[in-house]
Amino acid sequence: MPELNMVLVSCKRTRMFVNEDDLVRVAEGLGYHVIRASPDQMVNLRELSRVLNKCSVLVGAHKAGLTNNVFLPEGVVVVQVVGWGLEWAFEAYYGGVCVL
């Protein structure tokens, strides 16, 4: 069985997950090895490619850091979390929002 790696774009100043530890705990309970990637790691191309090449799932808040998904291997799932109040942007730019 292939290893399941989830990369969580972990920010501490803006658009952070207030329940990040819970998110990690649930993902690990589902069998994922969670890699918390800080914005500092996302600017170093060598470190970024090392982390993303092991990735099965990329999770992050809607922001510029997720543009790095262009470096993801084929078949990786991207989960982009939209903050409250930004629904209009997703409707305008992407044609709608998936609400769970």
TrEMBL record:
Highest taxon, organism lineage: Eukaryota
Subcellular location: Golgi apparatus membrane
Coiled-coil residues: none
GO cellular component: Golgi membrane
Keywords carried by this UniProt record: Glycoprotein, Glycosyltransferase, Transferase
Limits of the Glycosyltransferase 61 catalytic domain: 12-79
UniProt topology in membrane: Single-pass type II membrane protein
Extent of the signal sequence: none
A GO molecular-function descriptor: pentosyltransferase activity
PANTHER family, per database record: GLYCOSYLTRANSFERASE
Protein's UniProt name: Glycosyltransferase 61 catalytic domain-containing protein
Organism: Nelumbo nucifera
